[in-house]
Write a structure and sequence with these properties.
The complex is a heterodimer of chains A (about 220) and B (about 350).
Chain A: H1 4-17, H2 26-49, H3 53-88, H4 94-121, H5 126-146, H6 150-157, H7 159-162, H8 165-178, H9 184-191, H10 197-217
Chain B: E1 5-6, E2 10-26, H1 28-31, E3 41-42, H2 53-71, E4 81-86, H3 92-101, E5 105-107, H4 114-127, E6 133-140, H5 142-149, E7 165-166, E8 169-176, E9 184-190, H6 205-224, E10 233-236, H7 240-253, E11 262-264, H8 265-268, E12 280-281, H9 283-300, E13 305-313, H10 317-321, E14 328-337
Parallel strand pairs in B: 2-3, 4-5, 4-6, 7-12, 10-11, 10-13
Antiparallel strand pairs in B: 1-2, 2-8, 2-9, 6-8, 9-14, 13-14
Helix pairs in contact in B: 2-3, 6-7
The chains are: A mainly alpha (about 220), B alpha/beta (about 350).
Protein backbone atom coordinates (compact mmCIF):
# COMPACT_ATOMS: atom_id res chain seq x y z
CA UNK A 1 0.00 0.00 0.00
CA UNK A 2 1.38 3.33 -1.05
CA UNK A 3 0.66 6.57 0.72
CA UNK A 4 -0.34 9.80 -0.96
CA UNK A 5 3.25 11.13 -0.83
CA UNK A 6 4.70 7.97 -2.37
CA UNK A 7 2.12 8.07 -5.12
CA UNK A 8 2.94 11.67 -5.94
CA UNK A 9 6.65 10.89 -5.99
CA UNK A 10 6.09 8.03 -8.39
CA UNK A 11 4.00 10.23 -10.66
CA UNK A 12 6.56 13.02 -10.66
CA UNK A 13 9.47 10.73 -11.38
CA UNK A 14 7.55 9.16 -14.26
CA UNK A 15 6.84 12.53 -15.83
CA UNK A 16 10.35 12.70 -17.38
CA UNK A 17 10.20 9.15 -18.71
CA UNK A 18 7.03 9.90 -20.62
CA UNK A 19 8.55 12.74 -22.63
CA UNK A 20 10.56 10.58 -25.00
CA UNK A 21 8.44 7.51 -25.56
CA UNK A 22 10.05 7.02 -28.97
CA UNK A 23 13.30 5.97 -27.32
CA UNK A 24 11.57 3.38 -25.15
CA UNK A 25 11.34 -0.30 -25.99
CA UNK A 26 7.99 -2.10 -26.05
CA UNK A 27 8.81 -3.87 -22.79
CA UNK A 28 9.60 -0.58 -21.12
CA UNK A 29 6.28 0.88 -22.28
CA UNK A 30 4.50 -2.24 -21.08
CA UNK A 31 6.18 -1.82 -17.71
CA UNK A 32 5.05 1.79 -17.52
CA UNK A 33 1.46 0.80 -18.39
CA UNK A 34 1.41 -1.78 -15.61
CA UNK A 35 2.86 0.65 -13.12
CA UNK A 36 0.24 3.23 -14.04
CA UNK A 37 -2.53 0.67 -13.58
CA UNK A 38 -1.22 -0.15 -10.13
CA UNK A 39 -1.03 3.51 -9.15
CA UNK A 40 -4.52 4.11 -10.48
CA UNK A 41 -5.90 1.27 -8.40
CA UNK A 42 -4.16 2.68 -5.35
CA UNK A 43 -5.48 6.18 -6.00
CA UNK A 44 -9.10 5.09 -6.38
CA UNK A 45 -8.82 2.93 -3.27
CA UNK A 46 -7.61 5.90 -1.25
CA UNK A 47 -10.24 8.13 -2.83
CA UNK A 48 -12.98 5.71 -1.77
CA UNK A 49 -11.63 5.59 1.78
CA UNK A 50 -11.34 9.38 2.06
CA UNK A 51 -13.69 10.77 4.63
CA UNK A 52 -13.91 14.45 3.80
CA UNK A 53 -14.79 16.22 0.61
CA UNK A 54 -11.37 17.92 0.47
CA UNK A 55 -9.50 14.70 0.95
CA UNK A 56 -11.49 13.09 -1.81
CA UNK A 57 -10.78 15.97 -4.16
CA UNK A 58 -7.07 15.68 -3.41
CA UNK A 59 -6.97 12.00 -4.40
CA UNK A 60 -9.06 12.75 -7.44
CA UNK A 61 -6.45 15.22 -8.60
CA UNK A 62 -3.80 12.54 -8.19
CA UNK A 63 -5.98 10.13 -10.14
CA UNK A 64 -6.44 12.68 -12.92
CA UNK A 65 -2.68 13.07 -13.21
CA UNK A 66 -2.37 9.29 -13.60
CA UNK A 67 -5.06 9.38 -16.30
CA UNK A 68 -3.10 12.10 -18.12
CA UNK A 69 -0.02 9.91 -18.06
CA UNK A 70 -2.00 6.90 -19.27
CA UNK A 71 -3.36 9.00 -22.11
CA UNK A 72 0.16 10.00 -23.15
CA UNK A 73 1.08 6.35 -23.60
CA UNK A 74 -2.08 5.32 -25.38
CA UNK A 75 -1.89 8.35 -27.71
CA UNK A 76 1.66 7.40 -28.61
CA UNK A 77 0.68 3.79 -29.31
CA UNK A 78 -2.34 4.88 -31.34
CA UNK A 79 -0.24 7.26 -33.38
CA UNK A 80 2.20 4.49 -34.25
CA UNK A 81 -0.64 2.22 -35.31
CA UNK A 82 -2.34 4.95 -37.33
CA UNK A 83 0.67 5.30 -39.61
CA UNK A 84 0.44 1.55 -40.24
CA UNK A 85 -3.26 1.87 -41.11
CA UNK A 86 -2.51 4.70 -43.53
CA UNK A 87 -0.07 2.53 -45.42
CA UNK A 88 -2.52 -0.33 -45.85
CA UNK A 89 -5.90 1.40 -46.31
CA UNK A 90 -7.33 1.33 -49.85
CA UNK A 91 -7.71 4.78 -51.41
CA UNK A 92 -11.26 5.78 -52.35
CA UNK A 93 -11.55 6.23 -56.16
CA UNK A 94 -11.94 10.02 -55.88
CA UNK A 95 -11.88 10.82 -59.61
CA UNK A 96 -14.36 8.09 -60.52
CA UNK A 97 -16.69 9.12 -57.68
CA UNK A 98 -16.49 12.79 -58.66
CA UNK A 99 -17.39 12.07 -62.30
CA UNK A 100 -20.30 9.80 -61.23
CA UNK A 101 -21.59 12.46 -58.81
CA UNK A 102 -21.34 15.09 -61.56
CA UNK A 103 -23.27 12.95 -64.05
CA UNK A 104 -26.01 11.82 -61.60
CA UNK A 105 -26.42 15.27 -60.04
CA UNK A 106 -26.35 16.83 -63.52
CA UNK A 107 -29.06 14.46 -64.77
CA UNK A 108 -31.35 15.22 -61.83
CA UNK A 109 -30.91 18.98 -62.09
CA UNK A 110 -31.26 18.91 -65.91
CA UNK A 111 -34.53 17.07 -65.43
CA UNK A 112 -35.53 19.87 -63.06
CA UNK A 113 -34.65 22.47 -65.71
CA UNK A 114 -36.72 20.61 -68.33
CA UNK A 115 -39.67 20.52 -65.90
CA UNK A 116 -39.27 24.23 -65.14
CA UNK A 117 -39.26 25.13 -68.85
CA UNK A 118 -42.27 22.85 -69.40
CA UNK A 119 -44.31 24.53 -66.65
CA UNK A 120 -43.45 28.06 -67.92
CA UNK A 121 -44.43 26.95 -71.45
CA UNK A 122 -47.72 25.75 -69.97
CA UNK A 123 -48.41 29.27 -68.74
CA UNK A 124 -47.16 29.42 -65.13
CA UNK A 125 -45.11 32.39 -63.91
CA UNK A 126 -41.45 31.72 -63.07
CA UNK A 127 -42.14 31.66 -59.31
CA UNK A 128 -45.09 29.27 -59.69
CA UNK A 129 -43.16 27.09 -62.09
CA UNK A 130 -40.19 26.71 -59.73
CA UNK A 131 -42.53 25.66 -56.90
CA UNK A 132 -44.18 23.14 -59.19
CA UNK A 133 -40.76 21.83 -60.23
CA UNK A 134 -39.72 21.31 -56.59
CA UNK A 135 -42.97 19.47 -55.89
CA UNK A 136 -42.47 17.19 -58.89
CA UNK A 137 -38.84 16.37 -58.09
CA UNK A 138 -39.69 15.71 -54.41
CA UNK A 139 -42.51 13.44 -55.55
CA UNK A 140 -40.20 11.54 -57.90
CA UNK A 141 -37.57 11.20 -55.18
CA UNK A 142 -40.14 9.81 -52.75
CA UNK A 143 -41.62 7.47 -55.35
CA UNK A 144 -38.21 6.10 -56.36
CA UNK A 145 -37.39 5.59 -52.65
CA UNK A 146 -40.61 3.63 -52.18
CA UNK A 147 -39.84 1.52 -55.24
CA UNK A 148 -36.37 0.76 -53.85
CA UNK A 149 -34.55 2.51 -56.71
CA UNK A 150 -33.19 5.64 -55.03
CA UNK A 151 -30.69 3.81 -52.83
CA UNK A 152 -29.24 2.23 -55.98
CA UNK A 153 -28.89 5.69 -57.55
CA UNK A 154 -27.29 6.96 -54.33
CA UNK A 155 -24.74 4.14 -54.35
CA UNK A 156 -23.40 5.40 -57.67
CA UNK A 157 -24.17 9.10 -57.44
CA UNK A 158 -23.03 9.85 -53.85
CA UNK A 159 -23.42 13.56 -53.17
CA UNK A 160 -24.80 13.98 -56.70
CA UNK A 161 -28.05 12.32 -55.68
CA UNK A 162 -27.99 13.51 -52.07
CA UNK A 163 -27.70 17.29 -52.53
CA UNK A 164 -30.66 17.93 -54.92
CA UNK A 165 -34.12 18.20 -53.35
CA UNK A 166 -34.92 14.62 -54.39
CA UNK A 167 -32.25 13.51 -51.90
CA UNK A 168 -34.05 15.42 -49.17
CA UNK A 169 -37.25 13.54 -50.05
CA UNK A 170 -35.29 10.29 -49.89
CA UNK A 171 -33.98 11.13 -46.41
CA UNK A 172 -37.54 11.53 -45.08
CA UNK A 173 -39.25 8.66 -46.88
CA UNK A 174 -36.58 6.06 -46.11
CA UNK A 175 -36.84 6.27 -42.26
CA UNK A 176 -40.64 6.37 -42.58
CA UNK A 177 -40.49 3.06 -44.45
CA UNK A 178 -37.94 1.61 -42.08
CA UNK A 179 -39.82 2.29 -38.84
CA UNK A 180 -43.36 1.48 -39.98
CA UNK A 181 -43.13 -1.81 -38.06
CA UNK A 182 -42.69 0.09 -34.78
CA UNK A 183 -46.09 1.71 -35.32
CA UNK A 184 -47.28 5.07 -36.66
CA UNK A 185 -46.63 7.00 -33.45
CA UNK A 186 -43.35 5.74 -31.91
CA UNK A 187 -42.12 4.36 -35.24
CA UNK A 188 -42.92 6.59 -38.23
CA UNK A 189 -43.90 9.62 -36.16
CA UNK A 190 -40.82 9.61 -33.97
CA UNK A 191 -38.24 8.55 -36.54
CA UNK A 192 -39.35 10.22 -39.81
CA UNK A 193 -37.05 13.23 -39.34
CA UNK A 194 -34.01 11.40 -37.90
CA UNK A 195 -31.92 12.25 -40.98
CA UNK A 196 -33.73 15.35 -42.28
CA UNK A 197 -34.22 16.82 -38.79
CA UNK A 198 -30.89 18.67 -38.61
CA UNK A 199 -31.49 20.13 -42.09
CA UNK A 200 -34.94 21.36 -41.08
CA UNK A 201 -33.81 22.75 -37.70
CA UNK A 202 -30.69 24.54 -38.90
CA UNK A 203 -32.29 25.54 -42.21
CA UNK A 204 -35.04 27.30 -40.26
CA UNK A 205 -32.52 28.84 -37.87
CA UNK A 206 -30.34 30.10 -40.72
CA UNK A 207 -33.31 31.67 -42.51
CA UNK A 208 -34.31 33.44 -39.29
CA UNK A 209 -30.79 34.85 -38.92
CA UNK A 210 -30.63 35.92 -42.58
CA UNK A 211 -34.10 37.47 -42.26
CA UNK A 212 -32.90 39.48 -39.25
CA UNK A 213 -29.76 40.64 -41.06
CA UNK A 214 -31.82 41.67 -44.07
CA UNK A 215 -34.29 43.53 -41.84
CA UNK A 216 -31.49 45.44 -40.06
CA UNK A 217 -29.46 46.32 -43.15
CA UNK A 218 -32.29 47.21 -45.52
CA UNK B 1 -20.28 -38.45 -17.60
CA UNK B 2 -21.66 -35.48 -15.82
CA UNK B 3 -21.36 -35.32 -12.11
CA UNK B 4 -21.57 -31.65 -11.39
CA UNK B 5 -25.22 -31.14 -12.17
CA UNK B 6 -28.25 -31.78 -10.02
CA UNK B 7 -31.62 -32.29 -11.69
CA UNK B 8 -32.24 -30.14 -14.70
CA UNK B 9 -30.76 -26.75 -14.01
CA UNK B 10 -28.71 -26.78 -10.83
CA UNK B 11 -24.92 -26.78 -10.91
CA UNK B 12 -23.18 -28.36 -7.98
CA UNK B 13 -19.59 -27.17 -7.80
CA UNK B 14 -17.12 -29.84 -6.74
CA UNK B 15 -14.93 -27.31 -5.04
CA UNK B 16 -16.78 -24.40 -3.45
CA UNK B 17 -15.72 -21.15 -5.11
CA UNK B 18 -14.61 -18.45 -2.71
CA UNK B 19 -15.75 -14.85 -2.96
CA UNK B 20 -12.52 -13.41 -1.63
CA UNK B 21 -13.27 -9.74 -2.07
CA UNK B 22 -16.03 -7.44 -3.20
CA UNK B 23 -16.82 -3.75 -3.51
CA UNK B 24 -19.71 -1.50 -4.41
CA UNK B 25 -20.14 2.04 -5.67
CA UNK B 26 -23.47 3.86 -5.87
CA UNK B 27 -24.91 7.23 -6.81
CA UNK B 28 -25.92 9.92 -4.32
CA UNK B 29 -29.57 8.82 -4.12
CA UNK B 30 -28.68 5.23 -3.24
CA UNK B 31 -26.15 6.61 -0.75
CA UNK B 32 -28.98 8.42 1.03
CA UNK B 33 -31.03 5.21 1.13
CA UNK B 34 -31.29 2.78 4.05
CA UNK B 35 -28.18 0.83 2.98
CA UNK B 36 -26.08 3.98 2.45
CA UNK B 37 -23.42 3.14 5.03
CA UNK B 38 -22.53 -0.20 3.49
CA UNK B 39 -21.31 1.02 0.11
CA UNK B 40 -17.59 1.51 -0.45
CA UNK B 41 -17.97 4.73 -2.38
CA UNK B 42 -20.93 7.06 -2.79
CA UNK B 43 -20.59 9.39 -5.78
CA UNK B 44 -21.18 13.07 -5.07
CA UNK B 45 -23.30 13.45 -8.20
CA UNK B 46 -24.46 11.38 -11.15
CA UNK B 47 -21.79 12.69 -13.51
CA UNK B 48 -18.92 12.29 -11.03
CA UNK B 49 -16.73 14.73 -12.93
CA UNK B 50 -17.00 12.90 -16.25
CA UNK B 51 -18.22 14.36 -19.53
CA UNK B 52 -21.18 12.01 -19.91
CA UNK B 53 -23.32 9.70 -17.79
CA UNK B 54 -22.08 6.75 -19.81
CA UNK B 55 -18.48 7.61 -18.94
CA UNK B 56 -19.47 7.97 -15.28
CA UNK B 57 -21.06 4.51 -15.31
CA UNK B 58 -18.02 2.99 -16.96
CA UNK B 59 -15.70 4.49 -14.36
CA UNK B 60 -18.01 3.29 -11.61
CA UNK B 61 -17.73 -0.30 -12.83
CA UNK B 62 -13.96 -0.06 -13.25
CA UNK B 63 -13.48 1.49 -9.84
CA UNK B 64 -15.59 -1.06 -8.02
CA UNK B 65 -13.38 -3.82 -9.42
CA UNK B 66 -10.21 -1.91 -8.59
CA UNK B 67 -11.38 -1.29 -5.03
CA UNK B 68 -12.28 -4.96 -4.63
CA UNK B 69 -8.76 -5.89 -5.79
CA UNK B 70 -7.10 -3.29 -3.59
CA UNK B 71 -8.92 -4.58 -0.50
CA UNK B 72 -6.98 -7.83 -0.79
CA UNK B 73 -3.84 -6.19 -2.09
CA UNK B 74 -4.33 -7.83 -5.47
CA UNK B 75 -3.32 -6.26 -8.76
CA UNK B 76 -4.91 -6.50 -12.17
CA UNK B 77 -2.40 -9.11 -13.30
CA UNK B 78 -3.61 -11.39 -10.51
CA UNK B 79 -6.91 -11.78 -12.36
CA UNK B 80 -7.13 -14.46 -15.04
CA UNK B 81 -10.47 -13.39 -16.49
CA UNK B 82 -12.91 -10.55 -16.23
CA UNK B 83 -16.63 -11.16 -16.71
CA UNK B 84 -18.97 -8.20 -16.82
CA UNK B 85 -22.06 -6.69 -18.29
CA UNK B 86 -24.40 -3.71 -18.06
CA UNK B 87 -27.63 -2.45 -19.54
CA UNK B 88 -26.38 -0.16 -22.28
CA UNK B 89 -26.48 -1.00 -25.97
CA UNK B 90 -23.60 -3.32 -26.87
CA UNK B 91 -22.68 -3.40 -23.12
CA UNK B 92 -20.31 -0.48 -23.61
CA UNK B 93 -19.55 0.03 -19.93
CA UNK B 94 -18.26 -3.53 -19.59
CA UNK B 95 -16.37 -3.37 -22.89
CA UNK B 96 -14.70 -0.06 -22.08
CA UNK B 97 -13.86 -1.22 -18.57
CA UNK B 98 -12.20 -4.28 -20.07
CA UNK B 99 -10.27 -1.94 -22.37
CA UNK B 100 -8.93 -0.09 -19.36
CA UNK B 101 -8.09 -3.27 -17.45
CA UNK B 102 -6.41 -5.28 -20.19
CA UNK B 103 -7.50 -8.65 -18.75
CA UNK B 104 -8.98 -11.49 -20.88
CA UNK B 105 -12.65 -10.61 -20.98
CA UNK B 106 -16.03 -12.19 -21.61
CA UNK B 107 -18.88 -9.70 -22.00
CA UNK B 108 -22.24 -10.78 -20.65
CA UNK B 109 -25.78 -9.63 -21.15
CA UNK B 110 -28.60 -10.90 -18.99
CA UNK B 111 -30.25 -7.55 -18.32
CA UNK B 112 -30.53 -7.19 -14.54
CA UNK B 113 -29.56 -10.85 -14.02
CA UNK B 114 -26.09 -10.18 -15.45
CA UNK B 115 -24.27 -10.25 -12.12
CA UNK B 116 -25.47 -13.72 -11.17
CA UNK B 117 -24.86 -14.93 -14.73
CA UNK B 118 -21.29 -13.73 -14.20
CA UNK B 119 -20.98 -15.38 -10.79
CA UNK B 120 -22.20 -18.70 -12.23
CA UNK B 121 -19.87 -18.61 -15.25
CA UNK B 122 -16.98 -17.40 -13.08
CA UNK B 123 -17.56 -20.27 -10.66
CA UNK B 124 -17.69 -22.73 -13.55
CA UNK B 125 -14.38 -21.40 -14.89
CA UNK B 126 -12.72 -21.85 -11.50
CA UNK B 127 -14.36 -25.19 -10.73
CA UNK B 128 -13.36 -26.36 -14.19
CA UNK B 129 -9.75 -25.52 -13.45
CA UNK B 130 -9.43 -22.88 -16.16
CA UNK B 131 -8.48 -20.06 -13.86
CA UNK B 132 -7.33 -19.33 -10.38
CA UNK B 133 -8.99 -15.98 -9.97
CA UNK B 134 -11.84 -14.28 -11.84
CA UNK B 135 -13.32 -10.79 -11.53
CA UNK B 136 -17.06 -10.33 -12.00
CA UNK B 137 -18.81 -6.97 -12.24
CA UNK B 138 -22.12 -5.43 -13.25
CA UNK B 139 -23.36 -1.87 -13.31
CA UNK B 140 -26.31 0.32 -14.13
CA UNK B 141 -26.89 4.05 -14.07
CA UNK B 142 -30.24 5.76 -13.70
CA UNK B 143 -29.67 8.40 -16.35
CA UNK B 144 -28.03 6.21 -18.98
CA UNK B 145 -30.75 3.57 -18.66
CA UNK B 146 -33.61 6.05 -18.70
CA UNK B 147 -32.43 7.82 -21.81
CA UNK B 148 -31.80 4.59 -23.64
CA UNK B 149 -34.84 2.59 -22.57
CA UNK B 150 -37.50 5.15 -21.70
CA UNK B 151 -37.61 8.92 -21.95
CA UNK B 152 -35.17 11.82 -21.83
CA UNK B 153 -34.44 12.41 -18.15
CA UNK B 154 -35.99 15.87 -18.09
CA UNK B 155 -39.17 14.79 -19.88
CA UNK B 156 -42.14 15.84 -17.76
CA UNK B 157 -43.97 12.55 -17.50
CA UNK B 158 -45.82 10.97 -14.64
CA UNK B 159 -44.29 7.62 -13.72
CA UNK B 160 -46.80 4.86 -13.08
CA UNK B 161 -47.03 3.32 -9.62
CA UNK B 162 -45.64 0.04 -11.00
CA UNK B 163 -42.56 1.69 -12.51
CA UNK B 164 -39.19 0.99 -10.92
CA UNK B 165 -36.22 3.27 -10.53
CA UNK B 166 -32.96 2.20 -12.19
CA UNK B 167 -30.24 2.13 -9.58
CA UNK B 168 -27.03 4.06 -10.14
CA UNK B 169 -24.63 1.53 -8.83
CA UNK B 170 -22.04 -1.10 -9.50
CA UNK B 171 -20.70 -4.13 -7.71
CA UNK B 172 -17.56 -6.17 -8.30
CA UNK B 173 -16.59 -9.55 -6.90
CA UNK B 174 -13.37 -11.53 -6.91
CA UNK B 175 -13.87 -15.28 -7.23
CA UNK B 176 -11.04 -17.67 -6.55
CA UNK B 177 -10.05 -21.17 -5.55
CA UNK B 178 -10.81 -21.60 -1.87
CA UNK B 179 -8.03 -21.35 0.67
CA UNK B 180 -7.85 -21.47 4.44
CA UNK B 181 -8.62 -17.73 4.44
CA UNK B 182 -11.87 -18.14 2.56
CA UNK B 183 -14.94 -17.13 4.49
CA UNK B 184 -17.75 -17.10 1.97
CA UNK B 185 -18.19 -19.46 -0.95
CA UNK B 186 -20.54 -20.19 -3.82
CA UNK B 187 -21.50 -23.85 -3.69
CA UNK B 188 -24.31 -24.07 -6.20
CA UNK B 189 -25.62 -22.18 -9.17
CA UNK B 190 -28.89 -22.40 -11.00
CA UNK B 191 -29.25 -21.40 -14.61
CA UNK B 192 -32.67 -19.97 -15.38
CA UNK B 193 -35.02 -20.48 -18.29
CA UNK B 194 -36.57 -17.62 -20.25
CA UNK B 195 -40.18 -17.26 -19.16
CA UNK B 196 -42.72 -14.97 -20.77
CA UNK B 197 -46.16 -14.76 -19.20
CA UNK B 198 -47.38 -12.13 -21.63
CA UNK B 199 -46.72 -8.90 -19.75
CA UNK B 200 -45.99 -6.22 -22.36
CA UNK B 201 -45.94 -3.14 -20.13
CA UNK B 202 -42.35 -1.96 -19.88
CA UNK B 203 -43.40 0.18 -16.91
CA UNK B 204 -44.23 -2.95 -14.92
CA UNK B 205 -41.09 -5.06 -14.97
CA UNK B 206 -41.75 -6.56 -11.55
CA UNK B 207 -44.88 -8.33 -12.73
CA UNK B 208 -43.12 -9.47 -15.89
CA UNK B 209 -40.12 -10.93 -14.04
CA UNK B 210 -41.88 -12.56 -11.06
CA UNK B 211 -42.75 -15.80 -12.94
CA UNK B 212 -39.12 -16.24 -14.03
CA UNK B 213 -37.89 -15.76 -10.46
CA UNK B 214 -40.51 -18.17 -9.13
CA UNK B 215 -39.60 -20.76 -11.77
CA UNK B 216 -35.92 -20.63 -10.82
CA UNK B 217 -36.59 -20.80 -7.07
CA UNK B 218 -39.01 -23.72 -7.41
CA UNK B 219 -36.63 -25.50 -9.79
CA UNK B 220 -33.83 -25.15 -7.25
CA UNK B 221 -35.89 -26.84 -4.53
CA UNK B 222 -36.94 -29.59 -6.92
CA UNK B 223 -33.42 -30.19 -8.27
CA UNK B 224 -31.71 -30.31 -4.90
CA UNK B 225 -34.48 -31.72 -2.73
CA UNK B 226 -33.89 -28.88 -0.32
CA UNK B 227 -36.68 -27.09 1.50
CA UNK B 228 -37.10 -23.39 2.28
CA UNK B 229 -36.16 -24.25 5.91
CA UNK B 230 -32.63 -25.18 4.76
CA UNK B 231 -31.93 -21.67 3.57
CA UNK B 232 -31.57 -18.61 5.77
CA UNK B 233 -32.70 -16.08 3.20
CA UNK B 234 -33.91 -16.04 -0.38
CA UNK B 235 -33.01 -12.77 -2.08
CA UNK B 236 -34.21 -11.65 -5.49
CA UNK B 237 -32.50 -8.95 -7.52
CA UNK B 238 -35.00 -6.32 -8.52
CA UNK B 239 -38.57 -7.53 -8.47
CA UNK B 240 -39.65 -4.50 -6.48
CA UNK B 241 -42.68 -4.31 -4.22
CA UNK B 242 -45.18 -5.70 -6.69
CA UNK B 243 -43.06 -8.43 -8.24
CA UNK B 244 -41.93 -9.64 -4.82
CA UNK B 245 -45.49 -10.33 -3.69
CA UNK B 246 -46.35 -12.03 -6.99
CA UNK B 247 -43.24 -14.22 -6.84
CA UNK B 248 -43.95 -15.30 -3.27
CA UNK B 249 -47.49 -16.27 -4.30
CA UNK B 250 -46.31 -18.21 -7.38
CA UNK B 251 -43.76 -20.17 -5.33
CA UNK B 252 -46.44 -20.93 -2.72
CA UNK B 253 -48.70 -22.31 -5.44
CA UNK B 254 -45.96 -24.89 -6.15
CA UNK B 255 -45.97 -25.91 -2.51
CA UNK B 256 -43.04 -23.96 -1.07
CA UNK B 257 -43.72 -21.32 1.55
CA UNK B 258 -40.87 -18.79 1.46
CA UNK B 259 -42.78 -15.85 2.93
CA UNK B 260 -40.80 -15.80 6.18
CA UNK B 261 -37.38 -15.62 4.51
CA UNK B 262 -37.83 -13.78 1.28
CA UNK B 263 -36.59 -10.32 0.39
CA UNK B 264 -35.65 -8.29 -2.66
CA UNK B 265 -32.74 -5.92 -3.32
CA UNK B 266 -35.02 -3.49 -5.19
CA UNK B 267 -37.19 -3.18 -2.09
CA UNK B 268 -34.24 -2.73 0.28
CA UNK B 269 -32.13 -0.17 -1.54
CA UNK B 270 -34.50 2.80 -1.25
CA UNK B 271 -36.60 4.23 1.52
CA UNK B 272 -40.32 4.56 0.64
CA UNK B 273 -39.94 8.32 1.17
CA UNK B 274 -37.53 8.51 -1.79
CA UNK B 275 -40.45 8.42 -4.26
CA UNK B 276 -39.22 5.53 -6.37
CA UNK B 277 -42.64 3.89 -6.70
CA UNK B 278 -42.20 0.11 -6.99
CA UNK B 279 -38.53 0.04 -5.90
CA UNK B 280 -35.09 -0.18 -7.50
CA UNK B 281 -34.00 -2.07 -10.60
CA UNK B 282 -30.98 -2.51 -12.85
CA UNK B 283 -27.83 -4.64 -12.86
CA UNK B 284 -26.34 -2.33 -10.27
CA UNK B 285 -29.20 -2.93 -7.86
CA UNK B 286 -28.50 -6.58 -7.12
CA UNK B 287 -24.74 -6.12 -7.52
CA UNK B 288 -24.38 -3.25 -5.07
CA UNK B 289 -26.83 -4.63 -2.50
CA UNK B 290 -25.14 -8.05 -2.52
CA UNK B 291 -21.76 -6.44 -1.91
CA UNK B 292 -22.89 -3.83 0.58
CA UNK B 293 -25.53 -5.65 2.57
CA UNK B 294 -25.73 -9.44 2.23
CA UNK B 295 -22.09 -10.51 1.96
CA UNK B 296 -21.11 -8.48 5.04
CA UNK B 297 -23.94 -10.22 6.95
CA UNK B 298 -22.56 -13.59 5.86
CA UNK B 299 -19.08 -12.52 6.98
CA UNK B 300 -20.40 -11.44 10.36
CA UNK B 301 -22.24 -14.71 10.79
CA UNK B 302 -25.68 -13.13 10.89
CA UNK B 303 -26.58 -15.36 7.97
CA UNK B 304 -25.22 -18.79 7.11
CA UNK B 305 -26.44 -19.14 3.56
CA UNK B 306 -28.50 -17.24 1.02
CA UNK B 307 -30.08 -18.17 -2.28
CA UNK B 308 -29.42 -15.12 -4.41
CA UNK B 309 -31.63 -14.93 -7.48
CA UNK B 310 -31.23 -12.06 -9.94
CA UNK B 311 -33.94 -11.43 -12.48
CA UNK B 312 -33.63 -9.84 -15.89
CA UNK B 313 -36.17 -8.49 -18.36
CA UNK B 314 -34.86 -9.31 -21.81
CA UNK B 315 -36.64 -6.64 -23.83
CA UNK B 316 -35.46 -3.80 -26.01
CA UNK B 317 -37.18 -0.51 -26.94
CA UNK B 318 -37.63 -1.90 -30.45
CA UNK B 319 -39.31 -5.12 -29.29
CA UNK B 320 -41.66 -3.11 -27.06
CA UNK B 321 -42.60 -0.82 -29.95
CA UNK B 322 -43.26 -3.82 -32.15
CA UNK B 323 -45.77 -5.00 -29.54
CA UNK B 324 -43.73 -7.92 -28.21
CA UNK B 325 -44.24 -9.12 -24.64
CA UNK B 326 -41.32 -9.20 -22.18
CA UNK B 327 -39.28 -12.41 -21.94
CA UNK B 328 -37.65 -12.71 -18.52
CA UNK B 329 -34.91 -14.78 -16.91
CA UNK B 330 -33.67 -15.48 -13.41
CA UNK B 331 -30.35 -17.04 -12.40
CA UNK B 332 -29.42 -18.03 -8.88
CA UNK B 333 -26.41 -18.84 -6.72
CA UNK B 334 -26.23 -20.37 -3.29
CA UNK B 335 -23.74 -18.39 -1.23
CA UNK B 336 -22.57 -19.95 2.02
CA UNK B 337 -20.51 -18.96 4.97
CA UNK B 338 -17.73 -21.34 5.88
CA UNK B 339 -18.14 -22.27 9.50
CA UNK B 340 -14.62 -22.06 10.87
CA UNK B 341 -15.41 -23.77 14.19
CA UNK B 342 -17.06 -26.69 12.50
Amino acid sequence: MLTEQELLMKINSREKMLVNLKDKSDTEIQGLTKELQKDYQQAIFLEAKAETHEERRKYRQIRNRIIDQQNLISKYQQLRYRSLIKRSAPKPPVLKNTIAAFLVGGTITSLGQILLNFYIWQGLTFKEASTATSITVVFLGALLTGLGVYDEIGKVGGAGSMVPISGFANSIVSPALEFKREGYVYGVGAKIFTIAGPVILYGTLTSVIIGLITYITM
Amino acid sequence: MQTKRLGKQTLNFHIPVAISSFASIVGPMEGKGPLGKGFDYVLENDLDGEKSWEKAEQKMMQHSLEIALAKRNYHLEDLDFFLAGDLLNQIICANFTARALGIPFLGLYGACSTLVEGLIIGSMIIDGGFAQRVGVAASSHHETAERQLRYPTEQGIQRTMTAQWTVTGSGAFILEEPSSFSEIVITQGIVGRVIDMGVANAMDMGSAMAPAAADTIVRYFQDTGRKPEDIDLIVTGDLGNIGRILCEELVLQKGFDISAKFTDCGVLIYDPSQDVHAGGSGCGCSASVLAAYFLPQLLEGKLNNILFVATGALLSPTSTQQGETIPCIAHGVLIQRINKEG
